[in-house]
Amino acid sequence: MGAAELFSTLFVHEVDPDWRVFATCREIDADLFFPEDRQPAGQVKAVCRSCPVQPECLATAIATGEAHGIWGGMTYRERLRLVRVLRDGGFQIPRWRRRRRAA
């Protein structure tokens, strides 16, 4: 999938706020989607690949700057790389704001 098609899939259409209702992962232990550092995530990503709302999940994670877990079949680092590729391709993706932790 090219950058333009990917951008369109993720960001051109409005995301249905009820997308989570249709997520394949809704009946799977959520802890699996938050693996420890360097723990393999292949099985979890396979669940995402078969999910009917995978683009909505990925778009939500990117739009909110989700820094933890696997969303839409991608880890945080993979999502960062994707955002860089899209921005380098001239696509406008809002900059994420870092959430400050309360003291």
From TrEMBL:
Maturation and modification: The Fe-S cluster can be nitrosylated by nitric oxide (NO).
PROSITE patterns to which the protein is assigned, alphabetical: 4FE4S_WBL (PS51674)
Can you say where in the cell this protein is located?
A: Cytoplasm
Q: Which Pfam families match?
A: Whib
One of the protein's GO biological processes:
negative regulation of DNA-templated transcription
Metal-binding found in the keyword field: yes
- Which family is this protein grouped under? Belongs to the WhiB family.
Domain of life where this protein originates: Bacteria
| Source organism | Pseudonocardia bannensis
Q: What does this protein do?
A: Acts as a transcriptional regulator. Probably redox-responsive. The apo- but not holo-form probably binds DNA.
Q: Which HAMAP family match?
A: WhiB (MF_01479)
**What's an example GO cellular component term for this entry?**
cytoplasm
Provide the binding site for [4Fe-4S] cluster: C25, C48, C51, C57
> Which cofactors must be present for this protein to function?
[4Fe-4S] cluster
Q: Which UniProt keywords apply?
A: 4Fe-4S, Cytoplasm, Disulfide bond, DNA-binding, Iron, Iron-sulfur, Metal-binding, Transcription, Transcription regulation
* UniProt key word Metal-binding: yes
Q: What is this protein called?
A: Transcriptional regulator WhiB
Under InterPro entries, the record lists: 4FE4S_WBL, Whib
Domain called 4Fe-4S Wbl-type: residue spans: 24-81
Q: How is the cofactor bound, in the record's words?
A: Binds 1 [4Fe-4S] cluster per subunit. Following nitrosylation of the [4Fe-4S] cluster binds 1 [4Fe-8(NO)] cluster per subunit.
Q: GO molecular-function annotation terms?
A: 4 iron, 4 sulfur cluster binding; dinitrosyl-iron complex binding; DNA binding; metal ion binding; protein-disulfide reductase [NAD(P)H] activity
Where is this chain primarily localised?
Answer: cytoplasm
